Amino acid sequence: MNDIETLKEHVSTDVYARVFANRHLCALLADGAYLVSFRFCDITDPMQKDERVVAWCAGENLLFYTDCRRCRDLIEATDENAAPLLQLSVFFQTLTGNDVYTLEKIENSITELEDRILMDAHMNADRSNEIISLRRELLKMKRYYEQLSLILSELADNEGEFIPPELQKRFAVVDRRADYLLNFVLHLREYTTQVREAYQAQIDIEQNQIMKFFTVITTVFLPLTLIVGWYGMNFKMPEYEWEWGYATVIALSVFIVVASIVIFKKKKWF
Fold this sequence. Notes:
alpha+beta, Methane Monooxygenase Hydroxylase, Chain G, domain 1, 2 domains, four-stranded antiparallel sheet, 4 strands, 9% strand, rod-shaped
């Protein structure tokens, strides 16, 4: 086990630069060594900083370079007496072995969020932030599994016949698992998008209800505003001299309000 900075002792300056210039790398070097590099993402806490993991395999030698504590533990748990490529395949198997259960928990949390939105669709900044946070985490997971899928596909294809057939099958199995996990994450991203759209639709409905309420109130009091404006003009009206003029205006106003409410009730606008 080596720190990532010691990698430059075994590879050329050009290869060392390529490792850190790309998110992932899987290459057969000129000296016959096989180099695998990727950025590890802890999917139990995706917003943590990614850690670079590099595996250098030459003949009977397999060296890992990483500062990631979890990856170090997984590497130390492998059988150091096994063939280098077998150790590498076991490492990838162990690395992705329990990821499906973590993704299922995330799926359940999205389902619970969807249920909360359907039961209570009021605008909530925390809920909106939760959706945004989920999408960011799933984006990091997508990039992580894309790396693994590409690396394992190259190892399973074995174009340079560097890997024995029996180990090639092991890499093919892990490759299918990485593809499954990648598709799972893509499904979760799509699910999160649907939840966000459902939340936005609920917010739009709530806002439309508010606007409808204020429109009804404005419509009810608009005739009264007209009457007030009418009698607010500074000249004498004929009904001023009528004994029942004031009472008639009051009765007319009440009738307009009641009639408007009845009409809106029948049309289910109120």
